[in-house]
Queue: 2 jobs
Job 1
Amino acid sequence: MKLINTLFCIVSTICFISTVYATTTLLDSPRRIVSMGDLHGDLKNTKKILRLSGLIDENDHWSGGDTIYVQTGDVLDRGTDTIALYKLIQQLRKEAPEHGGLVIPLLGNHEIMNLAGDWRYVTKEETATFGGYNNRVRAFQKDGFLGEYLMQLNMTTKVDGTVFCHGGIHPNFARLGLDTINDYTHHDIEAYMASGGHADPHKIFGDKGPTWYRGYALADEPNICEFADKALTYMKAERMVMGHTVQRDGEIRTRCNGKIILVDIGISWVYGGYVGALEVVGDELTAIYENGRVSLTPPKNQPKAFSGVHLEL
Ligand SMILES: *[C@@H]1O[C@H](CO)[C@@H](O)[C@H](O)[C@H]1NC(C)=O
């Protein structure tokens, strides 16, 4: 009897412990986030990266489970696969939630430019995929099949402690909070489009706005890190992920001890066709490349950047 009791006790304790363990890991385990930068009209490489990151299967359907996939804008221009890329992203955006996942496409400066009729980077070949110029004009109008879709996208999003946006969020915008930035975007975009890119009351589409700003990518460290700290404090975030500024060596770059992460690696063949994505799981940062995974997790307990120099950016 005693032996059976002891056995029962051991078994139930193990069961209890493993149940508690399973529950806490389930509750505590952070979501997997995958992000990639500017796609610029290259469907082939985009699919390659989605497959490499486990987000699509061999039939191009969502296989990412509960992963959150954030695309930081500039899907179009330079290359030719505008329609096919938006179709793929829209399809994945429908499929992912059926598996507990989520696809978050954000606006880039090239989306905004096309909506406002600035077609500097549109090629003849790409226009032909719409069936000509007039069809393309219609597609980007507010009731066109791309205009309607793009106008409801957000400028920025925060997942756990990570903020995503196309260019970078200057402290002057970060101070407003992410919801206000998105509200201004949705509020101002129609007037901006109608005026051919002139009416921009909150300067949200301007050169220091979230789609164009390049300070975090180009300004010197450590000075720029003070700006990053300021912006991240306003947004109550740990790090900011952005595209827009091409890393010509094809590698995802971190700055300011992992608080700034640059994911535009020139995915499109126009820029060399580099293949790679960023994975964020909790505080673990990993670059996923064709030839393997590279940890980008910064060392812990780094001192705060302080230079005493104040930049006017
Ligand atoms: C934009 O952000 C809001 C607030 O986070 C969210 O509810 C909405 O679904 C987002 N829209 C898109 C198109 O992702």
Job 2
Amino acid sequence: MTQIFNFSAGPAVLPKPVLARAQAEMLDWHGSGMSVMEMSHRGKEFTSILEKTEADLRQLLAIPTNYKVLFLQGGAIAENAMIPLNLLNGKSADYVVTGAWSKRSVQDAQAYGQINIAASAEAQGFTTVPAFNDWQLNKQAAYVHYCTNETINGVEFLTVPDTHGVPIVADMSSHILSRPIDVSKYGVIYGGAQKNIGPAGLCLVIVREDLLEQASSLTPAVFHWKTQADNQSMINTPPTYSIYIAGLVFEWLLAQGGVEAIEQKNIAKANLLYHYLDQTDFYDNAIQHEYRSRMNIPFRLHDESLNDAFLKQAETQGLLQLKGHRSVGGMRASMYNAMPIEGVQALVEFMQAFEKSNS
Ligand SMILES: *Cc1c(COP(=O)(O)O)cnc(C)c1O
């Protein structure tokens, strides 16, 4: 069988050793006689899984003790609505729009209060990040929201703007755990699991404790961060199996040497593809270089009539799910932590061969 490399944007590739371990533990977790799926979420077995998962995540991201880690459901899109409900408290909020996901965050928040667009790169076709100096930030805002990696557009940034003490709320769905971050610079970090963490169905919310006191009384209990923080994310039944797999991914990451080590691998993978894209006219990536994403790399064939042939031939080579998002077109290679460099090498070799036979 051809070796398969899965470039899906999400749900996405998971580390093979994690899947193998889940398989080995599927019917009988650690001699309990039960699958993790069958366990009471309040029993001692699952409690130990949840505690280890949180501890490993805290170690990976060096999460300070004054931050709570919540394991919620509904994905990042549910949180888009729950952020204003938990934080606005009668104030306004500033949003920076750098791509499709942060634009969506604005739409999801607007029903709950005054949402201001502090800056937008839409006029530039979402190929850049507006300069921090140009962000129209309001010192009285409840928070500033942005997306640090735009999965669809392929724009990433991690330098943190000075928001004059206004808490930053960051959607990190598609690059969390791909590189070190300074959690203390953020008020809230959130992300759906199905990009770089584990299976769909789980959303991580990392929130500074002092921000837990301003939720609207309309906030549903399952999305009420303080209620969930006070109840170990168990005001309802949490997505137990997704949490378990996320825990296995965290263990795998620690064994890889943590986020510092995985960052080096991610840099090497991204460099390989960008370097090739930059020395050919056959393909093109339009993102301003300093904001190019390491995780999601959109590119176009100069001759778009070759798109179908490209995708079909890629698939026969075992290179799957390279089609770009329907709103952007072209191609997209998502290269999360679990994508080995061999996958990117195989992709570049295929792209070179395709270029050669079509020019
Ligand atoms: C995928 C994604 C989302 C949406 O996640 P859901 O789990 O579908 O709610 C939001 N933001 C970013 C940056 C994403 O990559």
